[in-house]
Design goal:
mainly alpha, 16 helices
Length: 317
Protein backbone atom coordinates (compact mmCIF):
# COMPACT_ATOMS: atom_id res chain seq x y z
CA UNK A 1 0.00 0.00 0.00
CA UNK A 2 2.99 2.32 0.37
CA UNK A 3 3.17 2.72 -3.41
CA UNK A 4 -0.39 4.09 -3.44
CA UNK A 5 0.33 6.77 -0.85
CA UNK A 6 0.69 10.52 -1.34
CA UNK A 7 3.02 12.39 0.97
CA UNK A 8 1.01 15.62 0.99
CA UNK A 9 -2.22 13.74 1.68
CA UNK A 10 -0.55 11.83 4.52
CA UNK A 11 0.61 15.07 6.13
CA UNK A 12 -2.86 16.56 5.79
CA UNK A 13 -4.48 13.69 7.67
CA UNK A 14 -3.04 14.89 10.96
CA UNK A 15 -5.25 17.98 11.04
CA UNK A 16 -8.27 15.76 11.73
CA UNK A 17 -6.83 14.29 14.91
CA UNK A 18 -5.75 15.66 18.27
CA UNK A 19 -3.41 12.71 18.83
CA UNK A 20 -0.56 11.81 16.49
CA UNK A 21 -1.50 9.35 13.76
CA UNK A 22 0.60 7.53 11.19
CA UNK A 23 -0.63 7.63 7.61
CA UNK A 24 0.71 6.29 4.33
CA UNK A 25 -1.39 8.86 2.50
CA UNK A 26 -3.61 6.40 0.63
CA UNK A 27 -6.94 7.90 -0.37
CA UNK A 28 -10.18 6.10 0.49
CA UNK A 29 -11.17 5.06 -3.07
CA UNK A 30 -7.77 3.40 -3.51
CA UNK A 31 -8.06 1.60 -0.18
CA UNK A 32 -11.53 0.40 -1.12
CA UNK A 33 -10.48 -0.73 -4.58
CA UNK A 34 -7.50 -2.60 -3.15
CA UNK A 35 -9.74 -4.33 -0.59
CA UNK A 36 -12.14 -5.44 -3.33
CA UNK A 37 -9.26 -6.72 -5.44
CA UNK A 38 -7.84 -8.62 -2.46
CA UNK A 39 -11.28 -10.07 -1.72
CA UNK A 40 -11.71 -11.36 -5.27
CA UNK A 41 -8.21 -12.75 -5.66
CA UNK A 42 -7.74 -14.43 -2.30
CA UNK A 43 -11.25 -15.85 -1.85
CA UNK A 44 -10.69 -16.40 1.87
CA UNK A 45 -13.46 -17.45 4.22
CA UNK A 46 -15.41 -15.10 6.50
CA UNK A 47 -13.81 -16.70 9.57
CA UNK A 48 -10.33 -16.25 8.14
CA UNK A 49 -10.93 -12.64 7.14
CA UNK A 50 -12.09 -11.85 10.67
CA UNK A 51 -8.80 -13.18 12.02
CA UNK A 52 -6.85 -11.20 9.41
CA UNK A 53 -8.77 -8.01 10.18
CA UNK A 54 -7.82 -8.22 13.86
CA UNK A 55 -4.13 -8.44 12.90
CA UNK A 56 -4.40 -5.58 10.42
CA UNK A 57 -6.23 -3.39 12.94
CA UNK A 58 -3.27 -3.66 15.29
CA UNK A 59 -0.93 -2.08 12.74
CA UNK A 60 0.06 1.55 13.45
CA UNK A 61 -0.86 2.89 10.01
CA UNK A 62 -4.29 4.50 9.69
CA UNK A 63 -4.56 3.39 6.07
CA UNK A 64 -4.07 -0.27 7.00
CA UNK A 65 -6.62 0.00 9.78
CA UNK A 66 -9.11 1.37 7.27
CA UNK A 67 -8.17 -1.40 4.84
CA UNK A 68 -9.17 -3.94 7.50
CA UNK A 69 -12.63 -2.35 7.66
CA UNK A 70 -13.01 -2.19 3.89
CA UNK A 71 -12.06 -5.86 3.70
CA UNK A 72 -14.70 -6.76 6.27
CA UNK A 73 -17.23 -4.71 4.31
CA UNK A 74 -16.65 -6.92 1.27
CA UNK A 75 -18.31 -9.69 3.28
CA UNK A 76 -21.35 -7.59 4.19
CA UNK A 77 -23.84 -10.05 2.73
CA UNK A 78 -22.69 -12.96 4.87
CA UNK A 79 -21.88 -10.76 7.90
CA UNK A 80 -25.44 -9.43 8.07
CA UNK A 81 -27.40 -12.57 7.22
CA UNK A 82 -29.58 -14.23 9.81
CA UNK A 83 -27.07 -16.98 10.55
CA UNK A 84 -24.07 -14.74 11.21
CA UNK A 85 -25.43 -11.32 12.27
CA UNK A 86 -25.40 -11.80 16.03
CA UNK A 87 -21.92 -13.31 15.98
CA UNK A 88 -20.75 -10.48 13.69
CA UNK A 89 -21.77 -7.87 16.25
CA UNK A 90 -20.10 -9.85 19.05
CA UNK A 91 -16.92 -9.98 16.98
CA UNK A 92 -16.89 -6.29 16.02
CA UNK A 93 -17.72 -5.23 19.56
CA UNK A 94 -15.45 -7.53 21.57
CA UNK A 95 -12.50 -8.29 19.28
CA UNK A 96 -12.07 -4.87 17.67
CA UNK A 97 -13.95 -1.98 19.29
CA UNK A 98 -13.63 -2.93 22.96
CA UNK A 99 -9.97 -3.91 22.57
CA UNK A 100 -9.26 -0.52 21.03
CA UNK A 101 -7.46 -2.06 18.07
CA UNK A 102 -8.56 0.70 15.67
CA UNK A 103 -8.16 3.40 18.29
CA UNK A 104 -9.46 6.44 16.34
CA UNK A 105 -12.87 7.94 15.77
CA UNK A 106 -12.32 7.77 12.00
CA UNK A 107 -12.06 3.98 12.13
CA UNK A 108 -15.15 3.69 14.31
CA UNK A 109 -17.15 5.93 11.98
CA UNK A 110 -15.87 4.07 8.92
CA UNK A 111 -16.93 0.77 10.49
CA UNK A 112 -20.41 2.16 11.10
CA UNK A 113 -20.86 3.50 7.56
CA UNK A 114 -19.40 0.42 5.87
CA UNK A 115 -20.83 -2.41 7.95
CA UNK A 116 -22.36 -1.78 11.38
CA UNK A 117 -25.19 0.52 10.26
CA UNK A 118 -26.23 -2.05 7.65
CA UNK A 119 -26.05 -4.77 10.29
CA UNK A 120 -28.32 -3.08 12.83
CA UNK A 121 -30.69 -1.90 10.10
CA UNK A 122 -31.07 -5.43 8.76
CA UNK A 123 -31.21 -7.34 12.05
CA UNK A 124 -33.97 -6.12 14.34
CA UNK A 125 -33.06 -8.58 17.08
CA UNK A 126 -29.70 -6.88 17.69
CA UNK A 127 -31.37 -3.54 18.43
CA UNK A 128 -34.07 -5.18 20.52
CA UNK A 129 -31.48 -6.90 22.68
CA UNK A 130 -31.00 -3.83 24.93
CA UNK A 131 -28.92 -1.75 22.50
CA UNK A 132 -28.75 1.05 25.07
CA UNK A 133 -26.53 -1.10 27.28
CA UNK A 134 -23.60 -0.33 24.96
CA UNK A 135 -23.60 3.27 26.16
CA UNK A 136 -22.60 2.18 29.69
CA UNK A 137 -19.16 3.70 30.30
CA UNK A 138 -18.55 1.47 33.32
CA UNK A 139 -18.52 -1.55 31.02
CA UNK A 140 -17.76 -0.34 27.50
CA UNK A 141 -14.97 1.84 26.21
CA UNK A 142 -15.36 5.03 24.22
CA UNK A 143 -15.27 3.28 20.85
CA UNK A 144 -18.16 0.93 21.64
CA UNK A 145 -20.18 3.84 23.04
CA UNK A 146 -19.51 6.04 20.03
CA UNK A 147 -20.42 3.20 17.66
CA UNK A 148 -23.71 2.67 19.54
CA UNK A 149 -24.74 6.21 18.56
CA UNK A 150 -23.14 6.62 15.12
CA UNK A 151 -24.53 3.31 13.84
CA UNK A 152 -28.06 4.73 14.23
CA UNK A 153 -27.49 7.78 12.00
CA UNK A 154 -28.98 6.31 8.78
CA UNK A 155 -32.14 5.41 10.70
CA UNK A 156 -32.39 8.87 12.28
CA UNK A 157 -32.06 10.56 8.90
CA UNK A 158 -35.14 8.66 7.75
CA UNK A 159 -37.11 9.49 10.89
CA UNK A 160 -36.97 5.90 12.13
CA UNK A 161 -36.09 4.46 15.52
CA UNK A 162 -36.65 7.82 17.23
CA UNK A 163 -37.50 6.23 20.56
CA UNK A 164 -34.27 4.26 20.50
CA UNK A 165 -32.34 7.36 19.43
CA UNK A 166 -33.73 9.33 22.38
CA UNK A 167 -32.85 6.45 24.74
CA UNK A 168 -29.27 6.24 23.48
CA UNK A 169 -28.85 10.01 23.65
CA UNK A 170 -30.30 10.15 27.16
CA UNK A 171 -27.85 7.50 28.30
CA UNK A 172 -24.89 9.46 26.92
CA UNK A 173 -25.80 13.01 27.91
CA UNK A 174 -23.53 12.86 30.95
CA UNK A 175 -20.70 11.00 29.19
CA UNK A 176 -17.56 13.07 29.89
CA UNK A 177 -15.81 12.16 26.64
CA UNK A 178 -15.85 14.88 23.98
CA UNK A 179 -16.08 12.28 21.20
CA UNK A 180 -19.14 10.78 22.87
CA UNK A 181 -20.82 14.19 23.05
CA UNK A 182 -20.02 14.79 19.39
CA UNK A 183 -21.44 11.37 18.50
CA UNK A 184 -24.87 12.02 20.01
CA UNK A 185 -24.85 15.59 18.72
CA UNK A 186 -24.09 14.31 15.24
CA UNK A 187 -26.84 11.69 15.60
CA UNK A 188 -29.45 14.30 16.47
CA UNK A 189 -28.17 16.68 13.81
CA UNK A 190 -28.79 14.05 11.15
CA UNK A 191 -32.11 13.12 12.73
CA UNK A 192 -33.18 16.77 12.55
CA UNK A 193 -32.97 16.65 8.75
CA UNK A 194 -36.13 14.54 8.82
CA UNK A 195 -37.58 15.22 12.27
CA UNK A 196 -36.53 18.73 13.27
CA UNK A 197 -39.59 19.36 15.44
CA UNK A 198 -38.95 16.12 17.35
CA UNK A 199 -35.31 17.06 18.00
CA UNK A 200 -36.38 20.52 19.21
CA UNK A 201 -38.94 18.94 21.52
CA UNK A 202 -36.28 16.57 22.83
CA UNK A 203 -33.94 19.46 23.68
CA UNK A 204 -36.66 21.52 25.33
CA UNK A 205 -37.85 18.57 27.42
CA UNK A 206 -34.34 17.68 28.61
CA UNK A 207 -33.68 21.32 29.40
CA UNK A 208 -36.89 21.43 31.44
CA UNK A 209 -35.88 18.26 33.26
CA UNK A 210 -32.50 19.72 34.20
CA UNK A 211 -30.47 17.22 32.19
CA UNK A 212 -26.84 18.09 31.35
CA UNK A 213 -26.59 19.50 27.82
CA UNK A 214 -23.01 20.26 26.86
CA UNK A 215 -22.15 23.11 24.53
CA UNK A 216 -20.62 20.67 22.04
CA UNK A 217 -23.69 18.43 22.00
CA UNK A 218 -26.19 21.27 21.56
CA UNK A 219 -24.24 23.06 18.84
CA UNK A 220 -23.90 19.86 16.84
CA UNK A 221 -27.63 19.14 17.27
CA UNK A 222 -28.66 22.53 15.97
CA UNK A 223 -26.34 22.85 13.01
CA UNK A 224 -29.13 22.23 10.47
CA UNK A 225 -31.72 24.41 12.23
CA UNK A 226 -32.74 27.83 10.86
CA UNK A 227 -30.55 30.55 12.31
CA UNK A 228 -33.26 32.20 14.42
CA UNK A 229 -34.43 28.92 15.93
CA UNK A 230 -30.86 27.86 16.49
CA UNK A 231 -30.07 31.07 18.36
CA UNK A 232 -33.17 30.69 20.54
CA UNK A 233 -32.33 27.11 21.54
CA UNK A 234 -28.67 27.90 22.15
CA UNK A 235 -29.69 30.66 24.51
CA UNK A 236 -32.29 28.45 26.21
CA UNK A 237 -29.76 25.69 26.93
CA UNK A 238 -26.75 27.92 27.58
CA UNK A 239 -26.76 27.24 31.33
CA UNK A 240 -27.26 23.47 30.99
CA UNK A 241 -23.59 22.77 30.25
CA UNK A 242 -22.08 20.93 33.26
CA UNK A 243 -18.87 22.96 32.82
CA UNK A 244 -20.76 26.20 33.47
CA UNK A 245 -22.63 24.73 36.42
CA UNK A 246 -19.30 23.89 38.01
CA UNK A 247 -18.16 27.46 37.57
CA UNK A 248 -15.46 26.75 35.04
CA UNK A 249 -14.29 29.85 33.20
CA UNK A 250 -15.61 30.15 29.68
CA UNK A 251 -13.82 31.44 26.61
CA UNK A 252 -13.42 35.18 26.39
CA UNK A 253 -12.69 37.34 23.40
CA UNK A 254 -10.07 40.00 23.68
CA UNK A 255 -9.47 42.80 21.24
CA UNK A 256 -8.63 41.35 17.87
CA UNK A 257 -9.49 37.83 18.99
CA UNK A 258 -10.52 35.38 16.31
CA UNK A 259 -14.27 35.07 15.97
CA UNK A 260 -15.52 31.89 17.59
CA UNK A 261 -16.80 29.32 15.14
CA UNK A 262 -20.24 27.80 15.43
CA UNK A 263 -18.66 24.47 16.26
CA UNK A 264 -15.69 23.53 18.41
CA UNK A 265 -12.25 24.79 17.38
CA UNK A 266 -11.14 21.33 16.36
CA UNK A 267 -12.23 19.86 13.05
CA UNK A 268 -15.63 18.18 13.09
CA UNK A 269 -15.62 14.40 12.92
CA UNK A 270 -17.80 14.29 9.83
CA UNK A 271 -15.58 16.69 7.87
CA UNK A 272 -13.38 13.74 6.93
CA UNK A 273 -16.43 11.78 5.96
CA UNK A 274 -17.66 14.58 3.70
CA UNK A 275 -14.30 14.67 1.95
CA UNK A 276 -14.37 10.91 1.43
CA UNK A 277 -17.98 10.92 0.29
CA UNK A 278 -17.20 13.42 -2.45
CA UNK A 279 -14.58 11.00 -3.74
CA UNK A 280 -16.90 8.00 -3.38
CA UNK A 281 -20.10 9.44 -4.87
CA UNK A 282 -20.23 6.95 -7.70
CA UNK A 283 -20.05 4.05 -5.26
CA UNK A 284 -22.92 5.19 -3.04
CA UNK A 285 -25.58 2.94 -4.56
CA UNK A 286 -28.11 1.27 -2.26
CA UNK A 287 -28.71 -2.40 -1.66
CA UNK A 288 -31.85 -3.81 -0.12
CA UNK A 289 -31.22 -5.98 2.90
CA UNK A 290 -33.70 -8.33 4.56
CA UNK A 291 -35.24 -6.85 7.69
CA UNK A 292 -35.67 -9.20 10.62
CA UNK A 293 -37.73 -8.86 13.78
CA UNK A 294 -40.49 -6.70 15.11
CA UNK A 295 -41.34 -4.95 18.33
CA UNK A 296 -40.42 -1.76 20.13
CA UNK A 297 -37.70 -0.81 17.67
CA UNK A 298 -39.39 -1.97 14.47
CA UNK A 299 -37.54 -1.26 11.24
CA UNK A 300 -38.79 -0.53 7.73
CA UNK A 301 -35.40 0.48 6.35
CA UNK A 302 -33.36 -0.84 3.47
CA UNK A 303 -29.78 -0.78 4.70
CA UNK A 304 -27.26 0.83 2.41
CA UNK A 305 -23.54 0.11 2.37
CA UNK A 306 -20.61 2.41 1.70
CA UNK A 307 -20.84 6.17 2.28
CA UNK A 308 -24.60 6.13 1.74
CA UNK A 309 -24.95 4.50 5.15
CA UNK A 310 -24.12 7.82 6.79
CA UNK A 311 -25.13 10.48 4.30
CA UNK A 312 -27.86 9.37 1.94
CA UNK A 313 -29.11 12.72 0.79
CA UNK A 314 -27.43 15.33 -1.33
CA UNK A 315 -26.81 18.15 1.11
CA UNK A 316 -23.30 18.64 2.41
CA UNK A 317 -22.24 18.47 6.02
Amino acid sequence: MRDMGEKKYAEGQQRFFKNVVKSLGVRTPKIRAYAKEYYKEKEISWDDVKTLAVKLAQQPWLDIKHFSIELLACYQKIATDQEHASATWDYLRDDLLQKGSWGTWSCVDCLCSRLLSALVSARQDILEDDWVQYTNRDKWNLWVRRAAAVALIPLGKKGRQLELIWDVTDAMLDDPEDLAQKAIGWLLKETSKHSQAAVERYLRERHGAGRPLTRTFVRYCLEKFPQAKRRTLLELTSQDDPAKKKGRPGKTRGKGARKEKDDDDDVEDDDVEEEEEEEEEEEAKGKKVEVVGSGRYNLRAAARPVAAAVDDDDDDE
